[in-house]
Design goal:
The chain is mainly alpha-helical and 206 residues long. It has nine helices and no strands.
């Protein structure tokens, strides 16, 4: 089904990529600061599920359509920008959360992480550029290999982004007892989401 040597080479490469600070990590950081540990973990899970959707699309060859159709790339990108700005506005307007109650339900945090990842067209282009380097057609179905490599990436991302979110959530829970600090936590979270929106807005295909 998959070449063992290729998988052995893929794992450390995937771990290095997961440890590299990026949009997913920053999103979980912002979610943790805003809402606590559980929503941050849920957001990390949503991101991982979203990345698996990209992996399936790339494995099916649909990613090539995004890579060659600038119009579709930009439509997806601007949907992501609008959604991140919506999250930033929500973080600014949200009432001060109580110390024992997440500001965002876990289901909503999961959905947010999923949509943020899904509306980042750069992810599928990254999958198309990275995963095929380890695919060996002679070892079995290409889609199956994409799925296995995607699961490794998704699981590593879930653990690392989740830990970042837990750290941010723990810090946020300790600080939120101060009304002034709670307001600033909301502003910081909004700034992170707005920064990610700007980053996505300036994104180029290459």
């Amino acid at each position: 089904m998959i070449d063992p040597l290729s998988l052995l080479a893929f794992v450390p490469a995937a771990l290095a990529l997961n440890l590299t600070p990026g949009a997913d990590m920053m999103f979980c950081l912002g979610q943790g600061l805003r809402s606590g540990r559980r929503p941050a973990i849920a957001a990390s899970a949503g991101i991982s599920v979203g990345s698996m959707v990209h992996v399936v699309l790339a494995g099916l060859g649909l990613g090539a359509v995004v890579a060659t159709q600038p119009g579709l790339f930009h439509v997806i990108r601007w949907i992501g920008v609008a959604y991140l700005l919506f999250l930033a506005w929500g973080a600014l307007r949200a009432p001060m959360p109580k110390a024992d109650l997440p500001a965002v339900p876990t289901a909503q945090a999961f959905r947010a992480g999923f949509l943020v990842n899904l509306t980042n067209p750069k992810v599928i282009l990254f999958v198309l550029a990275f995963v095929p380097q380890f695919v060996v057609p002679e070892a079995g179905p290409v889609l199956g290999q994409f799925l296995i490599y995607g699961l490794v990436l998704a699981f590593g991302g879930f653990v690392i982004n989740g830990l970042i979110g837990i750290f941010a959530g723990t810090a946020g829970r300790h600080l939120i007892s101060s009304p002034a600090v709670a307001v600033w936590l909301g502003r910081i979270s909004a700034g992170i989401f707005a920064g990610l929106a700007l980053r996505l807005a300036l994104l180029q295909k290459t």
